[in-house]
Design brief:
Elements lengths: L3 E7 L3 H12 L3 E7 L3 H9 L5 E3 L11 E4 L6 H11 L5 E4 L5 H10 L4 E7 L20 E4 L7 H13 L3 E4 L2 H33 L9 H7 L6 H10 L1 H23 L3 H26 L1
Parallel strand pairs: 1-2, 1-4, 2-3, 4-5, 5-6, 7-8
Antiparallel strand pairs: 6-7
Helix pairs in contact: 4-6, 6-9
Bound molecules: nicotinamide-adenine-dinucleotide and prephenic acid (PRE).
Length: 294
């Protein structure tokens, strides 16, 4: 993999900061310009050696950048891509790391066809946000989905795959619409359910006038970890992948209703069947994840 002489990362939070740190750790980029609207974030990223230069605005910050990585919340893409269309060099490769692709990435392409744009999505992260949570090893052994657009030159695609492999990730190609359906189910729905569950417990605490928050154990903590995730990022995802998330929520509602009915009817065998099916499915998924990480 040829070293990138000069690149820019827009959005120096958990994902942008981790990517910058990974580029540095593996010696993949000589000069990284960090662009973020938050000055404190840029100071922190400079202090940690993640970036070599910084700017709070895109204008004037992209000279000589052959690669531009966009790691801001998906709700900012229209504004950020508009700025890129005005200030990126014509040959620069633009890659976004947003959690939604599908219609969103097609809209970016339709609106800004002059950009050499490849949509991508790292399947790595955490409930923490901000550059303080960044880690050079975040992407190690993690899938990194690429959803090429029909006109994406194959030479640029293979260059991106090489780069992702070099930061330790596992690049996987996927159709953009399929991406949004898959991640609505396995990532976006769990976040909506975790937020909804915690919200409902807070409401029960009020309604029942009982100190519920004093008693949770590890089960609550494991299940709700992701309800501590950044609300801007998740509100943006919910709206950008609205149709797929609504459909997955409807199927979830039906599944929960089946369990509710079995409890109401004291149908023990229906409960056992539901719980066994879920346990076996989850165990197989976790086994598969552990094998992939071994
Ligand atoms: N957190 C995860 O688990 C995860 C995983 C995979 C992909 N993603 C995607 O990566 C992107 C970033 O997520 P994150 O967790 O790093 O978020 P974050 O909140 O940690 O960081 C976002 C950064 O973008 C900056 N920013 C916001 N709007 C901006 C704008 N218009 N111009 C310049 N800077 C701006 C913020 O100041 C912040 O520093 C999102 O699109 C998200 O969907 C997140
Ligand atoms: O580990 C977490 O906390 C995450 O939420 C990471 C997670 C996920 O759902 O797995 C969240 C959103 C991303 O787009 C990719 C990864």
């Amino acid at each position: 993999m040829e070293v990138i002489e000069r690149c820019a990362i827009i959005g120096l939070g958990l994902i942008g900061g981790s990517f910058g740190a990974a580029l540095k750790e593996h010696g993949l980029a000589r000069h990284i310009t960090g662009i973020d609207r938050c000055e404190q974030t840029l100071r922190q990223a400079m202090g940690s050696g993640i970036i070599d230069g910084s700017s709070t605005v895109v204008a004037g910050a992209l000279a000589g950048c052959t690669h531009i990585f966009v790691a801001t919340p998906v709700g900012s893409f229209d504004v950020v891509f508009e700025q890129l269309s005005q200030h990126a060099e014509a040959s620069a490769l633009v890659v976004d790391f947003g959690s939604v692709k599908g219609e969103l990435s097609m809209r970016m392409h339709r609106r800004f066809p002059q950009l050499n744009y490849i949509p991508a999505h790292p399947i790595a992260g955490s409930e923490r946000s901000g550059v303080g949570a960044a880690s050079a090893s975040l992407f190690r052994n993690r899938k990194w989905i690429i959803t090429p657009l029909p006109q994406t030159p194959s030479v640029q695609l293979s260059e991106l795959r090489q780069l992702l492999l070099a930061v330790g990730a596992v690049p996987v190609d996927m159709d953009p619409m399929e991406h949004d359906r898959v991640f609505a189910a396995v990532s976006h729905l769990p976040h909506m359910v975790a937020y909804g569950l915690v919200g409902s417990i807070a409401a029960m605490e009020d309604a029942w006038n009982l100190p519920l928050s004093r008693y949770p154990g590890a089960g609550f903590r494991d299940f709700t970890r992701i309800a501590s995730s950044d609300e801007t990022m998740w509100a943006d995802i919910a709206l950008a992948n609205k149709a797929e998330i609504l459909e997955s929520m409807e199927l979830f509602r039906e599944s929960l209703e089946k369990i509710r009915q079995a409890i109401a009817c004291e149908d023990r065998s229906a409960l056992l069947e539901s719980f066994r099916g879920a346990r076996e499915y989850r165990d197989a998924i976790v086994r598969h994840m552990e094998e992939a990480n071994a």
